[in-house]
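[scheduler] slot 2 assigned
[scheduler] job type: sequence-to-structure, two independent chains
[scheduler] chain ordering preserved from manifest
[runner] begin chain α
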Amino acid sequence: MATLNVKGLPDALYRKLQKRARAHRRSVTQEVTQILEDAVSGTEPVSILDLRGLGKDAWRGVDAASHVDAERRAWD
């Protein structure tokens, strides 16, 4: 297994990593490994407007937040 040394890591950042690791019940090493794994293997979020076959032309020019607000108000 490879070893990674990080030089010049700010103390404040290390404390945040420690806190996050404790919250997830991991060691700092395990937490950093998980963060790196998520960063390099995660998929990029996709906008519904970028998907094919889902009526993106019908949504062109529509403000999604306003639409959701209107839908929520309709159920009140």
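[runner] end chain α
[runner] begin chain β
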Amino acid sequence: MSDIITEISRGILRVELNRPAQKNAMTAGMYTNLAGIFGEADMDESVRVVLWHGAGDAFCAGNDIVDFLKNPPGPGESPQSALINAFIAFEKPIVAAVQGVAIGGGTTMLTHCDFVYAGENAKFKLPFIDLGLVPEFGSSFSIPASVGHLRAAEMFLLGEPFTAARRQNSAS
């Protein structure tokens, strides 16, 4: 079974991260595959919008740590940079439906979506401070632009989980 399932119907490309036992954690292969899916969808005139979600009870738990340690991103092209380039080039709307956890990259990838619908059980976390890592996917720019510098600093530097309601309240 594929780690990413796609289906197109009436102009909607449904993209499902499909590793529910691993909370849909991303492998290097999944980053590359997702970049290809977005690249192809951008050129496909029958695709008008992408609906992106995760299988099971999670959207995405970020990087699959075992795979990440085997395939760390380095200088130059990487699977993660291929995906960010695909996001930047993508000219059609991306709608994400988030249930359960969106951790690390599971949250930062969402900053490239046009609309994010978060279910009541959605929990977001930016654990970069705990991991000693730099935030990825341009999130050190996109999150402050969305929620303000003080709230973004709180999210990045404390690394505490937050809900969609908490994020929304900070934007006003």
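[runner] end chain β
[qc] chain β: The domain at 4-171 is CATH 3.90.226.10 (2-enoyl-CoA Hydratase; Chain A, domain 1).
[scheduler] slot 2 released
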